[in-house]
Amino acid sequence: MKRESAFAYFFVLPALALFIVFRLIPLGAGSIFSFSDWNGIEPPRWNGLDNYIELLGDPVFQATMLNTLKVLITLPVWVGLPLLLAIFIYLEVPGARVYRAAYFFPIVLSSIIIGTMFSIILRYDGTLNQFTGLVGIPGIDWLGDGRYALLAVILVAIWAHFGMSVLIFLSGLTTIPPEIIEAARIDGANLGQIIGRVIIPMLRPTIELVVVMTTITILTSMFGLIYVMTGGGPGTATYMPEFVIWLMQGQFSRLGYASAMSVALFVVVAVVGIIQIRLMRSQWSR
Amino acid sequence: MFSTTRAKLGLVLTAALLATAAHADDKTLVVWDFKSSEPLMKPYFDIIKQDFEKAHPGVTVQEVAQPADTYYTVLGTAINARQGPDVVLLNGGNLAIDRAGALVPLKGKFADILPDLIGLTSFQRPDGDYVAIPLTVQGSIWYTNREVYKDAGLDPAKPPQTWKEFEAVCTAIKAKTKASCVTFGNKDGTDFINVIATIADGLWSADTRAKFMKHDLAWTSDDMRAVFAKAKEMIDNGWIENGVNSYSPYTDAVNVLAGARTGNLLGLISDAPNSWKNVEDMTGEGGIGVALPFAIDQDPSANPKRLEVDGGIGFGITTWSTNQDLAVDFIKTAVSTDAAVQLMQSAGGLPSNTKVDLSSLKSDAAKQVIAFLGCCSVDGRIKSNYVTAERAELQRVGQLLITGQMSVDDALQSIEQVRQKELARKK
Description:
By secondary structure, chain A is mainly α.
């Protein structure tokens, strides 16, 4: 048994080492620097909780958090849409194979390519407005007007990411024995009942996984799209935490403050993740 | 047999050692810029690389073209990591001076060529030393589309000189054409900062300007409020092209002017896609006019020097570079007369090197710009004097002012708060 454990540790070691070097140590170092005013050139000046106090009153950080909340509110769409599409593919609607390939397509494109593509489509003199102009609908500055920019980025982000969720759901669906669905059909269940009463409850662990992964994606991986499509603007309309952290450490050379933002983001991701898992577990156990 | 093998082995080892030794002498000078990917600028960057490598056998110049809109953020990351470039391209003003701690002071290293250069003040540290050596001089100027002017019943040879004339031009263009009156590229809020600086330039007295340059002018002051009121007038009167918040200053805005979709473009005088060379190439020779920033609420003769000029782009050397002597030689190559002529001819760059004969430029637009440089320029630019944090806030609020999502009062209050916060932090 001891020998088996040692063998297991041996295999875990490389991943553990990478985790410690590239995740844990930077996290620790970032946490320490978050108590400093440091421009990356001169030695850090330790300033206690000043950065965290500044965060609480920083309108840019507040706007960023508000944007994050707005995007999190759309989480059901990020998860529900791919879930529904995966179920339809699983139930072999006509053209299911084509849909599977089509939905997977955006995943192989980098966010920079997707961002550039949609910038051309959504800009004021872009394809979408030219098209709507043909039917007399006045153009909207999707990326340059604060009322629409975040919505535009969210829709593009959903398009860019949902293929991966479809794929995860499809792999989850293969674990559901077809006999159960067949039995439900024989018992007279309609499509809605099969999805709501049979498939979704059996897909519970996969849904949990997708919810948590998507939340992390929303909070930490929209950088590329924002960078290309809006540059965070107009104003602070499309600022998301990782984008602001990047600006703060690079453009403003405020590494201590950027570290405090990173710690705040880490706490938010952890808390939201824990709440989600607890909520879902209590929901399922009823 | 054995001795032959040994001899061959010896030969191979010797060759390998010689190759290694030669390789050890090879050096790479890493140069970061945000310009070499522009087609007009590429020949210049190619020629300085070629000339430098020819003069320094065994040294390779690795030019890394970084994206212009996020250059200073990427550069900040390199500065924090103390890794990356030996030589960096910088814009004049606070964008360069704010990074003085990461840049080698250059006054002593370039003493022999400094008397031949202009535009140095925008790279000058408070102690008088320089953080970078300018390649070009730069300033904001208006370009007009003559076709749009004609369509609006205006005289293309008489672009507006005053705010009142500008108002008349915009009213005519709006009434008689489908074009907008003004365009600029405000994705990331980039060009709103130029709009504000241009209005301030035409409106402020010398005293107010000096106060701003010393960072003594509050954003909530009456002088600043007057500048924003004019910007708001442009917005409220519908003079500005729809969609500027999603347009890039360097490509989209120029396309809009060249396509006769606007009458006036706020551009630059040198080495940029929105400067005379590219604008004229795209619109066609004789298709554009050039105008000084307008005199506002004063007679143009009372404030004739409205073309603000300072160092445009310049090369600095990073403190962590292990190739500082090579970097000095590279920059000297970059500002040399031969290279500067290439910069002027291919990219429309107005060189910092005063030995270059500008009269060799034959285009109409270039001649007008050069004439304005002679008669009507003033040293130092308001735009270069924004502190980084104020500049970022100005970019943000500018976009919101354009979409009507923020009032002038709130905008000014917001930038002033940033200014006060920065002042407190620096104490």
